[in-house]
Amino acid sequence: MTEQLWIVLVIVVLYMAVLAGISVVVRRSSRTSEGFASGGRVFPAALIGFLLMSEFIGTSATLGTAQQAYTTGISAAWNVLALAIGFVLFSVFVAKKYKALGENTISGALARTYGEGVRTATSLTMTCALLIVAVAIYASGGAILATLLGIDHVWATILVGVLATLYVVVGGMRSVVYTNLLHAIMKLAAVAVLAGIGLSRVGGIDELRAALPAANFSVVGVGWAQIFAWLIAGVGAIFATQYVVQAVTTVRDPERAQRAGFYAALMLVPFGLLAAVVGMVSAVLYPDIDSIDALPALAVDIDPLLTGLVMCGLVGAILGSIAALIIGSATLLLKDFYRPYFNRDGDDRKDLVFLRVATFVAGVLPIVLALLAKDVLAVTFLAKSLRAALAVLIVLMFYKPGYGSSRAAMWSILAALVATTGWFLVGDPFGVDNAYIAVATPLVIMTVAHLFRRRPAPVEAT
């Protein structure tokens, strides 16, 4: 093992030790099921803003944006900018409403308007979506680790999955909140370092422009259809993601819930632009590599101390997102499946045991599928599309609760799950992105139900 690799490993091990220390220190808050799932206290809006930003910027978004920018240029940043727009809209329209509702699961919120059938359908869709994102994060994290450490991709992916899962099982939600503050800082620092070094090596912006096609500098280079699809999927994902709701309910009041979303949006904008620049400079410096290696190739070609910093940022990207994904999945399984059917007496000790087991299973299960994933950005996008279908019902729930019917709401969720996934698997026929299918399906079903539902017979005058 070379001296440079040892330096990188030591830096990463020290970073992991700091994370482990945080998890152990805050473990007291994870001795009850509610403390494990919510952190056991309220948190400042700025801290939750860092958490939300960190949750959405995993290795799939980091690596995927650089991968897309390697071929299409700066417009790949829309993949992340769409999330920033989503958080602004979330803050303006629904953040206060979620906090005032007092529910920390999306399924519970929708069940209040549409009934228990919708609760089950929502949990099923949300769990599938979160685990799909976990697949993409493990796949991209494994690719990064394999490149940086020079180890087999399979073992790198397994190592990423196991470490991320154990990290969450120990500390619960409170450790996720505190460590994600550190993760967010490290991720921003990592992409800033890589973008700065890359631009310096190609000779600056002017030389980058000369080396790449003019289309790579168009803000709409990927096409309006793709940009709108990213916007629909990104906005929908934020409106209807379990761990977003879980996070905003940990602040003190609705106004702070709203501010948390604005803070997250503010940090996402520079991150998306910097990640796209990394992909573009890699296209000039390493023209013959696979696009998925755009970021890792530059990361291993710099000073080992800086490589260690970048590696810590990427570790943060993996752990920050995975933590939110699997704890969100476990919370849904607890509230919507375990408690109603297997723990009706409300034994908190049993709930806590189930939460830890469910967290472990939700973390380990996607590892196998991650070994087969190729296009991490497309896989992540599918998960966003599935959540966009739920976002339609959430908007209707808050602003038009009488539209459609409870039965139509349940069937629209299940139909959107099948239709969106099927459309993705057959390659988005006719150039129609699966995000449009995800949004159109519940809209059509709820509209048809609203138009044809039975109205009460008029009362005759006497």
From TrEMBL:
GO terms for cellular component: plasma membrane. It is found in: Membrane. Its main location: membrane. GO terms for molecular function: transmembrane transporter activity. The chain crosses the membrane at residues 6-26, 47-70, 76-95, 128-148, 154-173, 185-204, 224-248, 260-286, 306-333, 353-373, 379-399, 408-426, 432-452. Coiled coil: none annotated. It is a multi-pass membrane protein. Keywords: Membrane, Transmembrane, Transmembrane helix, Transport. CDD domains: SLC5sbd. It holds the Pfam family SSF. It comes from the Bacteria. PROSITE patterns: NA_SOLUT_SYMP_3. PANTHER family: SODIUM-SOLUTE SYMPORTER-RELATED (PTHR48086:SF7), SODIUM/PROLINE SYMPORTER-RELATED (PTHR48086). Belongs to the sodium:solute symporter (SSF) (TC 2.A.21) family. This is SSS family solute:Na+ symporter.
